[in-house]
Amino acid sequence: MNEYSKEQLKYLNILSEKFPTIQSVCTEIINLEAILNLPKGTEHFLSDLHGEYESFLHILKNASGAIKTKIDELYKNSMTQEERRKLATLIYYPKEKLELIKKETNNLVEFYRITLYRLINVCTVIGSKYSRSKVRKAIPKEYQYIIDELLHSNQNTFDKDIYYDKIIESIISLGRADAFIIAISNLIQQLAVDHLHIIGDIYDRGPGPHIIIDELMKYHSIDIEWGNHDIIWMGAAAGSEACIFNVIRICARYNNLDILEDGYGINIRPITEFAIEEYGQELDNIFAPKELDDKNSDELQKIIMAKTQQAAAIIQFKLEGQIIKNHPEFYMDDRLLLDKIDYQNNTVLINGKTYNLIDHNFPTIDPNNPYKLSDKEEEVVRKLVKCFKNSEKLQRHIQFLYARGSMYKIHNDNLLIHGCVPMNMFGEFVSVNVDGKQLKGRAYLDYVEKIAKEGYFEPEGSAKKKYGEDFLWYLWCGKNSPIFCKDKMKTFERYYLAEKETWEEIKNPFYTFQDDERIADKVLREFGIEPDLGHIICGHMPVKFKAGESPLKANGKLFIIDRWFVKSIPKNYWYSRIYIKI
Q1: What pLDDT is recorded for position 187?
Q2: What's phi and psi for 145, nearest 5 deg?
Q3: H/E element holding 559?
Q4: What is the Cα–Cα distance from 156 to 261, expressed in whole angstroms?
Q5: 398 in Cβ contact with 247 (< 8 Å)
Q6: Contact at 8 Å (CB) between 127 and 191?
């Protein structure tokens, strides 16, 4: 008789509740073995959405062209290219397309009959890689029986053919064709992608990150790898003052303060009124908002955005300076620049060199104590922290990011990470001193994730929460952050210095070795992945496609997908966003 440990017996007892007989166990084994031999479902990889919700929603609906490809394969000999395109559009936007078609079509009954047959065929092909049980679960309940019958009827027999036709005729005669077309189109969209991977940066300059997350929360199967722009919002929701003013500054910079006001119900009047009061109403070009194509703000709106951005930047620099001084282990003293300014001569000393400032409006800075907030700034900070922490929708979205997100993900032998695994110039993993221990590689990323969670979930006022909040800010811009991946963030220099060489942010050496297959193998092994089977998939750094750079690195073991959705970056970048595995 076999002897089992207590843990094994506990596990077997739990299993016995679901599978009480030998027959039930055998049935489940047969089912699982069969599922394992089905074709792999399509995985959809997206990165660097940056708040561009319109592009994201379209890509989500068409599965980056996967649906159109299936239509072309199925109907290439029986439909014209234009007909195939219209069918694809109907599947992407069924409600909107039906309204147009009904205005243009004379014989609507014929259109319904032909279209329903075509949609059933498309759905059958796309769903063929899944078990019948999985497809059935994806079908809307009100149409579950009918669609299941249509998808799995054997049309090769005469009797079944008549049965099939009668179902279609009944759908049309009962006036349910529109609703049925919408239901099966949505089913096709869902079956086209088995699992969605979002590899970082849902947030940033685009106008609708909140809209994107609303959609992601409804998605059937998803994981998220945090990006640095996600982290700064996570820190803001946790109550980190420095994170909050980074978020406000970026929203003002891209004329998107309505994300905060309309999207999350956050009252930003405390800072807009303060900004106009302290910084005046004269538009300063260096803080002029970088408007997107669809924004046409009037002059007053531009001034409000510019002054809000300016006020937020100064408060941000002060708060960041306080964190840096409180955490020497972050090694960020070179980011302490407010105390390097000569406020009489309007210059700043950086790395032993003196530069002229192109703006010298610093009404709230005390040269003798430059990192101290003024009384009015402290009041603004206090009010906005309260607004961010009390935004129900923001908290719900960030809790979703924590629930479905992580620093990295291992899925089907693929390592998914937004940025990098920090390395030194010798191709070795950077060893970071944390909690008295030296951590590197996977262990360091696990530690980073742990602290990021503590910054949000630990009790208010606890030392762990305060350190976690500060660390969330560090992940946004710190030298050894695996999602920032640069030596320093040059926000101050980009605002105040004309010399562009001072703006340069040096990438982590991980990117120096991105074409080296041996380094890719080393990273894969660090995360327990067999190099001959695995891939590394990341975003964050754009690829210069027109300069001849390929997004495929290290002999095809590293994929960089980044920034297809961003409107306001140079056109000499390759904007990859998808890698589909069949």
Answers
A1: 93
A2: -65, -45
A3: strand 558-560
A4: 59
A5: no
A6: yes
Decide: helix, strand or coil at residue 353. Answer: strand
Q: Roughly what angle, to the nearest 10 degrees, separates helices 463-477 and 228-238?
A: 150
Provide the pLDDT for residue 248.
Answer: 97
Q: For residues 35 and 343, give the distance between their C-alpha atoms in angstroms, rounded to a whole number.
A: 70
Phi first, then psi, for residue 318 (nearest 5°) are: -65, -45
- For residue 577, the model assigns a pLDDT of 42
Q: Which amino acid is at 382?
A: R
The interaxial angle of helices 53-62 and 81-92, nearest 10 deg, is 120
Crossing angle between the packed helical segments 108-127 and 144-152, to the nearest 10 degrees? 70
Residue labelled with tokens 């679901």 = 18
Distance CA 311, CA 32 (A): 59
Instruction: Check: CB of residue 563 under 8 Å from CB of residue 573.
Output: yes
Specify whether the CB–CB gap between 316 and 245 falls below 8 A.
yes
Calpha distance 493→206 (Å, rounded): 23
pLDDT in tens, 520-538: 999 999 999 999 999 999 9
What's the pLDDT at 35? 52
Show the tokens assigned to 4.
Answer: 């089992």
d(CA 235, CA 472): 5
CA distance 186 to 119: 11
Dist CA 203 CA 212 (whole Å): 9
Instruction: List the chain residues with pLDDT less than 50.
Output: 1, 38, 292-294, 564-582
Cα 454 from Cα 468, distance rounded (Å): 5
CA-wise closest residue to 134 among 268, 12, 35, 9: 35
Give the pLDDT of residue 33.
59
- Comparing C-alpha atoms, which of 420, 477, 416, 475 is closest to residue 447? 475
Helix 228-238 × helix 241-253 angle, to 10°: 120
534-575 tens-digit pLDDT: 999 998 876 665 556 677 888 889 988 865 444 443 333 333
Q: Are 243 and 476 in contact (CB under 8 A)?
A: yes
Find the farthest-apart pair of alpha carbons in the chain and give their distance in angstroms, rounded: 94
What CA–CA distance (Å, rounded) separates 263 from 214? 11
| Distance in angstroms (rounded) separating the CA atoms of residues 298 and 317 | 29
Range 168-177, long-range pairs (CB < 8 A, 24+ positions): 168/113, 168/116, 168/117, 169/113, 171/112, 171/116, 171/146, 172/109, 172/112, 172/113, 172/116, 177/112, 177/116
**Residue 7 and residue 29: Cα distance in Å, rounded?**
22
Could you tell me the sign of the dihedral formed by the alpha carbons of 460, 379, 373, 301, in that order?
positive
Amino acid at 202: I
* 87/121 Cα distance (integer angstroms): 12
DSSP letter for each residue of 154-173: -TTSHHHHHHHHHHHHHHHH
8 Å CB contact between 286 and 495: yes
Chain length of the chain: 582
Question: How many angstroms separate the CA atoms of 125 and 116, rounded?
Answer: 14
Burial class (CB in 10 A: 0-12, 13-18, 19+), 359: middle
CB under 8 Å to 243, separation ≥6 — which residues? 232, 233, 234, 235, 236, 469, 472, 473, 476
